[in-house]
User: Which sequence fits this backbone?
């Protein structure tokens, strides 16, 4: 099991951010944004599901509650070369609830079990679940245990647990990431009582020291917003977490390694700011980071903006 991952995040973990992360860490498991079964069934699959081979290992996070559609999408993803399928049972947004998937499915573990079963029959790659510790008034440890038991009986072996409950009404998705208190001990207890399951912990984790502490109690750690706010946080994980004998790239090298990738996509007609927005935080905390961000923000959106915008910004960093 991969001990470290970057969480699926809407508007963030697209293929360009994932490619950036691969300049920093080769081993960390990366996730797509959540993609609904309806989007895959009716939309532009190349745009929605395309990825570069360099991005692997990569997991596709699906949103849906129809076992047949989920199985079909899982097959498509496996054929494209994805390494894992993950079912979203954690997103509390009202839009997701209206589609009847995400965190509201925690109240229907039998539905989740049917979805997992259908996907596992359709593919050979792992099928996993990302969920909350509870929802609304169903937030006792016993409620989560009941969910885990029913879904694991259907064959699921890996669970990523966001160690906060979700309020389906009254809190925004952003508030649901910060207001409900973290309950790491419930996730530790789950692993202790179900040692045969692979348990990953998520929520409020911002440093590699915290990662190492959690790995004493669970199988894996997922980092969300901190990975986007400070991608270079992952510079040493291939050595510290995976035991590889490699030298971490410098921040300058990370950006220089992105330049051919930028040239490639600009040549395909993509606007520079579609990729450059993911680069803004690479120098966070470093001297010159304000000038770096300002130059990119002021110029990357312009009609004929090219790679020179990035190289000029890089020259502003000592």
Assistant:
């Amino acid at each position: 099991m991969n001990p470290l991952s970057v969480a699926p995040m809407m508007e963030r973990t697209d293929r360009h951010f994932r490619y950036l992360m691969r300049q920093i860490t080769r081993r960390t498991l990366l996730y797509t944004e959540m993609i609904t079964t309806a989007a895959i069934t009716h939309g532009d699959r190349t745009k929605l599901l395309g990825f570069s081979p360099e991005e692997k290992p990569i997991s596709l996070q699906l949103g849906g509650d129809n076992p047949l559609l989920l199985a079909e999408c899982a097959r498509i993803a496996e054929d494209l070369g994805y390494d894992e399928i993950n079912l979203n049972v954690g997103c509390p947004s009202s839009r997701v609830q209206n589609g009847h998937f995400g965190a509201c499915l925690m109240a229907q573990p039998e539905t989740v079990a049917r979805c997992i079963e259908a996907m596992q029959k359709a593919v050979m790659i792992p099928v996993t679940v990302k969920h909350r510790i509870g929802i609304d008034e169903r937030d006792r440890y016993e409620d989560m245990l009941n969910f885990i038991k029913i879904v694991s009986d259907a064959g699921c072996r890996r669970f990523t647990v966001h160690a906060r409950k979700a309020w389906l009404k009254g809190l925004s998705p952003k508030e649901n990431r910060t207001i409900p208190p973290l309950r790491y001990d419930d996730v530790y207890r789950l692993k202790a009582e179900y040692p045969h399951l692979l348990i990953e912990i998520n929520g409020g984790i911002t440093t590699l020291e915290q990662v190492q502490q959690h790995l004493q109690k669970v199988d894996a750690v997922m980092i969300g917003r901190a990975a986007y706010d400070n991608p270079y946080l992952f510079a040493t994980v291939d050595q510290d977490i995976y035991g590889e004998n490699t030298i971490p790239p410098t921040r300058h090298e990370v950006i220089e390694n992105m330049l051919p990738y930028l040239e490639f996509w600009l040549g395909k007609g993509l606007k520079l700011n579609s990729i450059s927005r993911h680069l803004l935080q690479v120098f966070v905390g470093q001297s010159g980071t304000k000038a770096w961000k300002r130059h990119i923000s002021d110029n990357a959106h312009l009609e004929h903006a090219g790679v020179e915008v990035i190289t000029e910004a890089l020259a502003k960093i000592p």
